[in-house]
Specification:
Chain A has 152 residues and is mostly beta strands. Chain A has two helices and ten strands; from the N terminus they run βββββββαβββα. The termini of chain B are far apart. The longest helix of chain B has 15 residues. The chains are: A mainly beta (152), B alpha+beta (930). Chains A and B meet through strand 6 and helix 2 of A and strand 9, strand 30, strand 38 and helix 19 of B.
Chain lengths: 152, 930
């Protein structure tokens, strides 16, 4: 049997970094998607626009689980569908504001938004006052990094 | 005019001299100067030429309303046309030229046009220059009337855009704006304050009232100390849109970006944008040396520049600031108050003003200060949808009824006196009690301003930017252009880069006089964004080059690049081919296609759509979505299907794979994957909200590699020893979910080449590794999109959107049978049952055989005339390496009943001959697929 090797997506991208903002790619994090049919119970899962623990609500009856908590459940593996970037620093709202129309003042900790970044759709999660997680469709990772570098 | 620098005063830094050039001559200025103030200080009288008559023009204003001093800033890639000199902060080495002058503003030869002005009245191009044809004259006339020139090389500067939100947006940092922000600040609300000038402070920067200036300085200091207040200078709010979205453009003095476009969503907006002084209409009022009185005072106090030595003041009100002018050392030769029955009045002079002539005689002067009353800067208020009303006492349009969360304060609200403006701003900002105000000077208006224009003959300008005169407005009224909107279009009043900031009110007052209506009854034209010109760079922002349209990148992009792939943009960046040294793309494609037919080829099919449809209602949902019945598909099997829109037109095709009773995997075409996923969701949410179906687009999760060709299986069998891929037990159109080692894998027996194919999907991050493993065998040839296109054409496989168009129904491409028999409903079914969908003379997909390669798009014609109606057209064509001759696919009228016929095809002046044949050129029996 041929041995297959994992080459992390976006590993070739030059990430921007500065004193007030840092961008990194979360290494080897699993991303699972839970899509529930109408009427299915969603007890214990976060409400629309919110995150709890590893779980992020990203739309009506749709959740993402980041990490291994979702393994074994009836979830769809989306680990390679997204590149998970972490953005930290006080100037991140300004940086993201170059591409996203989002009211950061009202976008508190554990708020989640499925929003437009430039021309593409992303998921944004604020998990600490100056820490954000940006889930980028993996084919567009280069576009997002290019955009961030332009504005850094 | 003989402008000069005052020995002291102004907010310029006299310790930092700067050099600059205008129209090729070098001058000196100081840090803190604008280009306009520096030109005035250097005694430059003629700064530009008028739009139509090329009359000499000097500086007229000091702010955004300046309409004469438009310059071409810098040259080459950095050049910017039509910048107002009043908005350009001077820097060392600045280079500017006047616009549309030859050779320069002072010596423009087109000045002779002015002599023929009587032949060029408003709307002359509707009446004259018609014989023999307007086109003969249009070019020279347009060039003569033009402005600056656009840059011809790419702009090397960077631009950015910023989306931001705030609870309160204050536009303007004059006394009213500062008061509003100061009053609101203690609430802790997020406040954004915009100032169009390079330094905040508004009119307090040039007021003679030291108490007011001091109060404003303190207010600014207090605001700067607050964390919840952000002040942006050099930022012009230019547009007001729905839901309190305000657009502003910032020209930062330093930093990486030349300009930044701000999109500000504000809970509430306070507009404190001030007011603009109006000219008065009399002959000669455009001569260099005729200036707004407020501008003369501002140049003196803010920039330490004296605009002239001996001035005549012409005013229709009590607010001409005569004391300010005297304080600047300007000798006031006369004050002409037009409310005093002055009779005819004109400004005399040829290249600059030398006198004012009245019925009482001639008054020599080198400066005429005009004070024609004030127009509140209500542009943004009007853009927000607010209505205006004309105040007959103050002769100005003031804000009336707001429809968005916007309120006006200070001069923008018609409140000119500083103390009252501060009180107004303070109240709007939510401040109680009243602010602690210094003892400010109060206006001492004893009588209201008057409507007046000189009855003298001669060119009396209303709109300086577009050379519209009082006579033009009278002409328009005579010709029945009595609506202010018609007046604007007929005369071009208010259509220049200044958008009529100084001219609109005078124009509509004159129209009112000509048509016996009060100004309020005439009304204003609609204010539209932008308030001041905005560069394309700011509007485009970062969306240039690779960021213009995001391209998707394959998970194994680097692997392909390492193999010498020639990439092309198909939404995804995909290898077109892997040309070897000296090969063209098409030569490489033919080599690759032949290798697939003869051995095995390797293709990165990762972009192919992958949509998982799950749930107890999944099968019946797919029966509704596809023309074909999917509910009868067995687990582990694959079926080809067509998707139609409601008109029965083919919008996509691909295969559906049944993974389990309630679990399907759809493969829509690469370009349509995201669109189809959204489309499926739309059907579910809008029509079947209770159905137990979920849709997940997993296209990017899986990388897909196709091994295709007669030797594909033997190569795979060698590598995937634990997986039984024997074509007998794992035949065409079957599927297995398996693993390669520890890595999950999905293998589908589908083909778009006509050869036996294995489509292997692994998580995307393993794609490069899988490609590498499969390509290690030198007998396996990587092939790109061009080779795939050849292979699918040889097999007669259509590509939706290429071999179909916006009218193609299934029967046109050979899928007509069985539709009437399908029991359940599906999207487009009703349309297919109409007579139109089964007409015999429809365009049908056929093959074409020819001696020469046919051009795609060539039309079949019934006879030699190129104008003959089309009988169909070529959709795809290539040189077939398998057959050794050209082949093509085409949509031809009644095509399937005309197999064997010869057709003539017309394209770009040439005719081609071809024979209509079966569209399947290679392996019509499908033996090679097994």
């Amino acid at each position: 049997m041929i041995p297959l090797t994992r080459i992390p997506l976006a590993s070739d991208l030059k990430l921007p970094h500065g004193t007030e903002a840092r961008v990194a790619v979360e290494p080897a994090s699993h991303v699972w998607l839970l899509a529930l049919a109408p009427g299915a119970a969603s007890d214990g899962l976060p409400d629309p626009g919110r995150a709890e623990g590893s779980w992020l609500n990203i739309g009506p009856r749709e959740w993402l689980c980041i990490g291994d908590e979702g393994e074994g459940k009836a979830l769809v593996d989306m680990s390679d569908a997204f590149v998970v970037m972490t953005l930290s620093g006080g100037s991140i709202p300004d940086l993201l504001g170059s591409a996203m129309s989002l009211a950061f003042a009202g976008f508190g900790i554990n708020h989640v938004a499925r929003a437009r970044f430039g021309e593409i759709a992303v998921v944004l999660h604020r998990y600490a006052p100056e820490e954000f997680r940006l889930l980028v469709p993996s084919p567009y990772a280069g576009y997002v990094v290019d955009w961030l570098r332009h504005h850094f | 005019m003989s402008g000069s620098r005052l020995p002291s005063g102004g907010r310029i830094d006299r310790t930092r001299p700067l050099r600059f050039s205008f129209d090729g001559r070098n001058y000196d200025g100081y840090a803190g100067d604008t280009l306009a103030s520096a030109l005035l200080a250097n005694g430059v009288e003629i700064v530009g030429r008028s739009f139509k008559y090329h009359r000499p023009r000097g500086l007229y204003a000091a702010g955004a309303e300046e309409m004469n001093a438009l310059v071409q800033l810098e040259s080459g890639a950095l050049t910017e046309p039509n910048r107002s000199a009043t908005g350009i902060l001077l820097y060392d080495g600045l280079s500017a030229r006047s616009v549309n002058t030859a050779p320069d503003a002072a010596r423009d030869w087109r000045a002779l046009f002015d002599r023929f002005g009587r032949f060029l009245p408003a709307g002359f191009y509707y009446k004259t220059f018609m014989w023999p044809h307007w086109r003969l004259f249009e070019g020279p006339i347009r060039r003569a009337a033009g402005l600056g020139t656009a840059p011809e090389v790419p702009d090397p500067d960077l631009y950015a855009q910023v989306n931001t939100q705030c609870e309160l947006l204050v536009v303007g940092t004059g006394p009213a704006g500062l008061a509003a922000a100061l009053a609101a600040a203690p609430s802790g609300a997020q406040i954004l304050v915009l100032e169009a000038e390079h330094e905040p402070g508004g009119s307090s920067l040039w007021t003679a009232d030291e108490a007011l200036a001091s109060w404003c300085r303190d207010a600014l200091t207090a605001l700067r100390a607050r964390a919840n207040v952000r002040i942006l200078a050099a930022t012009t709010a230019f547009g007001y849109y729905d839901h309190n979205l305000v657009a502003a453009v910032e020209r930062p003095a330093s930093g990486r970006f030349r300009e930044r476009l701000w999109k500000i969503r504000a809970d509430r907006v306070i507009l404190a944008s001030g007011a603009i002084e109006r000219p008065l209409v009399f002959p000669g009022n455009d001569l260099p040396g005729v200036m707004l009185a407020s501008a003369v005072a501002r140049y003196a106090r803010q920039f330490g520049v004296k605009a002239g030595e001996r001035a005549v003041i012409v005013t229709n009100n009590d607010e001409a600031g005569i004391d300010d002018l005297r304080a600047a050392g300007i000798d006031i030769a006369a004050v002409i108050d037009v409310r005093d029955e002055v009779g005819p009045l004109r400004a005399g002079g040829r290249r600059r003003v030398t006198a004012v002539e009245t019925r009482h005689g001639r008054i020599a002067c080198d400066l005429v200060c005009v004070a024609g009353g004030w127009s509140p800067t209500v542009h943004l208020f009007s853009q927000s949808g607010g209505s205006l009303r004309f105040c007959n006492v103050r002769l100005m349009f003031v804000p009336d009824r707001a429809v968005q969360a916007i309120a006006c304060a200070g001069a923008a609200n018609g409140t000119l006196a500083a103390a009252a403006a501060i009180a107004e701003g303070w109240t709007l900002g939510g401040g109680t009690p009243a602010p602690d105000l210094p003892d400010l000077k109060c206006g001492t208006a004893s009588r209201p301003p008057a409507i007046w224009s000189s009855p003298s003959s001669g060119k009396a300008f209303v709109d300086y930017a577009n050379d519209v005169t009082k006579a033009d407005i009278a002409l328009a009224a005579r010709e029945n252009y009595v609506s202010v909107e018609h007046l604007k279009r007929y005369t071009t009043l208010g259509m220049g880069p200044d958008q009529g900031k100084t001219s609109n009110v005078n124009g509509l007052v004159l129209l009112g006089e000509a048509t016996a209506r009060a100004p309020g009854a005439v009304g204003t034209t609609r204010f539209r964004p932008p308030y001041t010109p905005v560069s394309f760079g700011a509007l485009v922002g970062a969306r240039t080059g690779e960021r213009f349209r995001p391209r998707k990148q394959l998970p194994a992009h680097c692997w392909h690049a390492g193999r010498g792939a020639a990439f092309e943009d198909y939404g995804w960046q995909r290898p077109d081919a892997y040309p070897r040294f000296g090969e063209s793309i098409m030569e490489a494609a033919r080599r690759e296609a032949a290798a697939v037919r003869q051995g095995a080829g390797l293709f990165d099919a990762s972009p192919i759509g992958k949509i998982e449809v799950r749930g107890t209602d999944a099968a019946r949902f797919l029966d509704f979505i596809y023309v074909q019945t999917m509910s009868t598909l067995k687990v582990g099997r694959i079926r080809y299907g067509l998707m139609l829109d409601e008109n029965g037109v083919v919008i996509d095709d691909g295969v559906a794979i049944r993974l389990a009773d309630d679990h399907f995997l759809l493969h829509p075409t690469s370009a349509a994957a995201d669109r189809i996923a959204t489309w499926l969701d739309e059907w579910l949410q809008c029509e079947f909200p209770a159905w137990q179906v979920t849709i997940v687009n997993v296209t990017a999760q899986w990388g897909t590699v196709t091994l295709s060709g007669p030797e594909a299986w033997s190569h795979l069998d060698h590598l995937l020893v634990d997986i039984d891929l024997d074509p007998v037990r794992f035949p065409h159109l079957s599927f297995m979910a398996t693993a390669i080692g520890e890595v999950p894998a999905r293998i589908a027996r589908v083909s778009f080449t006509g050869e036996a194919s294995y489509e292997i999907s692994v998580p995307a991050s393993y794609t490069a590794s899988l490609l590498e493993a499969l390509a290690e065998n030198p007998a396996v040839t990587p092939y790109g999109i061009e080779a795939l296109t050849i292979l699918r054409m040889e097999k007669g496989y259509l590509h939706v959107g290429t071999d179909t168009d916006g009218t193609t129904v299934p029967a046109d491409i050979g899928f007509g049978t069985g539709i009437a028999k399908k029991k359940s409903d599906f999207v487009g079914r009703r349309s297919l049952l109409r007579h139109e969908a089964s007409r015999e003379d429809r365009l049908q997909l056929v093959g074409l055989s020819s001696d020469r390669l046919l051009p795609v798009g060539a039309h079949a014609t019934a006879d030699m005339r190129p104008t003959c109606p089309s009988d169909g057209y070529v959709t795809s064509a290539c040189e077939s390496p398998t057959l050794g001759r050209p082949i093509a696919l085409a949509l031809i009228r009644r095509g399937r009943s005309r197999i064997g016929e010869r057709v003539r095809l017309y394209d770009l002046g040439r005719f081609h001959e071809a024979q209509i044949v079966n569209p399947v050129f290679v392996d019509p029996e499908g033996v090679r697929l097994r």
